[in-house]
């Protein structure tokens, strides 16, 4: 057993750090070791419990109801609001779409209206559930264009079962005009979902401490459901999210029941059936420990870190904000003297992980930061590393893709991508083909190639890449 745990620690050494505030994507660090310890111990205590049947594990039901009640109070939910704890933001988004679709059995070809900045989870839901996604371009401020959203709804209101807005959108960190969109959806009898997966646990506290936050909660008439992740800015262990509905009538189509088989009658509130009670227990333990006072303090910390980063970026001539952040997400763009991908590589060399975002709809590639409370003690170090990284990127010059490689990428058909095509691109990127595939230390050249590709081609390339990475390790047979 000791050898196995030692091997786990050895393998984990290659992962991004989840503590220390230096990983500004994927993980959310409160910077409070005791809170982290409590969450992990709660997960371990309930790792064997099964959330499939709440009557068999009543403590799970009690924790879920208390966590949903805490969330409902936080998001201005009315009396009668209900909710479900899911495995994460994607499952919450999937269920919001599935529930909206199944609430309208009279609609044979359902559609939903979403801004172009909506999280990809909603496009995944559209793909899974056969709901047409009507994607509406956003305005110059990167917020949903309310007039364009209204026009898209009215283009076919009889088939529209859902409209989605974000608080905030992931890519740019700004809150959509929820009141205007929700009001029009309500006039047409259409559900309005607010995707607050990444902002839902921090924006209410931001308002409490006096920051200017656009309206987006259930206090806005017409909002029928909200998703908010507790494994993000509630700083709970991975993976939990809460999907709240304005009423039980709104939630009921989300449920799945099946009795017409010889086994037990299946009843599910989520996509999963069997699910560990560990993540729920971890979220309940952390939120109960921190309470409103704890979250207000963490919110002050994270926004102080955001403000310091924003002010520091203003002093780096080669960088600018894509948009003034409404929440804890910051998107940066470089000028023509350097490129975002090289800056990201340089930050990684200085033990900071920041996320590259590809060019989209005429907008250049950007650098994305998900700032945590745990980043605040290191904000000065972050800015020093950012200044150094930008200087190094300027010295190196913008990453350029060989014209022949660019022409090769442009000529590829994403629907007919072959293994030979993929191996050719790997070779052009300086990677080795075949099944023994690993990422290079620097990703700028690879990202620059991906940035040239169309979205469809990028999807095909990344699917091929993941397929190569995810291959079984077979035990040696004697």
What's the short story on this structure?
Helices cover 42% and strands 13% of the residues. The chain has 478 residues and is an alpha/beta fold.
Could you walk me through the main structural features you see in this protein, from its secondary elements to its overall organization?
- The protein has 16 helices and 13 strands.
- It has 478 residues and is α/β, with parallel strands linked by helices.
- Strands 1-7-6-5-4-2-3 form a 7-stranded mixed β-sheet, with helices on both faces. A 4-stranded antiparallel β-sheet has the order 10-11-13-12, covered by helices on one side.
- Strand 4, helix 7 and strand 5 (191-195) form a beta-alpha-beta unit.
- The chain has 3 domains: 33-288, Aspartate Aminotransferase, domain 2, CATH 3.40.640.10; 292-396, Aspartate Aminotransferase, domain 1 (Alpha-Beta Complex); 403-469, no CATH class.
- The radius of gyration is 23 Å and the shape is globular.
Number of domains: 3
Calculate the mean pLDDT score and round it. 93
Considering DSSP H and I runs of 4 or more, what fraction of the residues is helical? 40-55%
Q: State the major sheet.
A: 7 strands, mixed
CATH fourth-tier homologous superfamily of the largest domain: Type I PLP-dependent aspartate aminotransferase-like (Major domain)
The name of the CATH architecture of the largest domain is: 3-Layer(aba) Sandwich
**Overall outline:** globular
Q: What is the spatial order of strands in the main beta sheet?
A: 1-7-6-5-4-2-3
Cα gyration radius (Å): 23 Å
Beta-strand level of the residues, as a percent range?
A: 5-15%
């Amino acid at each position: 057993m000791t050898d196995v745990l030692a091997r786990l620690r050895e393998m984990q050494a290659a992962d991004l750090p989840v503590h220390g505030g230096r990983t500004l994507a994927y993980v959310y660090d409160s910077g409070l070791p005791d809170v982290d310890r409590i969450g992990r111990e709660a997960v371990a205590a309930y790792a064997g419990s099964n959330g499939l049947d709440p009557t068999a594990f009543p403590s799970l039901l009690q924790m879920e109801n208390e966590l949903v009640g805490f969330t409902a109070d936080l998001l201005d939910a009315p009396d009668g609001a209900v909710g479900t704890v899911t495995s994460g933001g994607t499952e919450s988004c999937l269920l919001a779409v599935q529930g909206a679709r199944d609430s309208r059995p009279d609609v044979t070809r359902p559609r939903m209206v979403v801004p172009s900045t909506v999280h990809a989870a909603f496009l995944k839901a559209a793909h899974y559930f056969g709901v047409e996604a009507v994607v509406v371009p956003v305005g110059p401020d990167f917020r949903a264009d309310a007039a364009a959203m209204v026009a898209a709804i009215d283009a076919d209101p009889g088939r529209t079962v859902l409209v989605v807005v974000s608080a905030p959108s992931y890519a740019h960190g700004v809150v959509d005009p929820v009141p205007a969109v929700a009001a029009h959806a309500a006039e047409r009898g259409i559900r309005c979902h607010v995707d607050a997966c990444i902002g839902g646990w921090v924006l209410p506290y931001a308002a409490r401490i006096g920051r200017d936050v656009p309206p987006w909660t259930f206090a806005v008439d017409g909002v029928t459901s909200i998703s908010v992740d507790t494994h993000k800015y509630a700083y709970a262990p991975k993976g939990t999210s809460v999907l709240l509905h304005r009423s039980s009538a709104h939630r009921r189509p989300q449920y799945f029941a099946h009795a017409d088989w010889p086994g037990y009658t299946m009843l599910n509130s989520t996509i999963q059936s069997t699910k560990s009670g560990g993540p729920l227990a971890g979220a309940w333990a952390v939120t109960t420990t921190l309470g409103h006072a704890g979250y207000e303090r963490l919110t002050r910390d994270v926004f102080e870190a955001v403000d310091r980063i924003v002010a520091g970026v203003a002093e780096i001539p080669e960088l600018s904000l894509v948009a003034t952040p409404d929440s804890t997400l910051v998107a940066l763009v470089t000028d023509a003297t350097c490129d975002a991908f090289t800056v990201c590589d340089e930050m990684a060399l200085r033990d900071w992980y920041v996320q590259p975002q590809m060019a989209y709809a005429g907008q250049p590639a950007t650098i994305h930061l998900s700032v945590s409370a745990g980043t605040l003690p290191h904000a000065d170090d972050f800015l020093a590393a950012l200044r150094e990284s930008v200087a190094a990127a300027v010295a190196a010059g913008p990453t350029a893709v060989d014209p022949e490689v660019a022409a090769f990428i442009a000529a590829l058909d994403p629907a007919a991508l072959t293994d030979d095509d993929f191996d050719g691109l790997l070779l052009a990127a300086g990677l080795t083909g075949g099944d023994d595939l690993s990422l290079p230390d620097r990703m700028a050249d690879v990202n620059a190639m991906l940035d040239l590709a169309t979205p469809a081609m990028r999807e095909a390339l990344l699917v091929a890449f993941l397929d190569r990475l995810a291959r079984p390790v077979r035990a040696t047979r004697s």
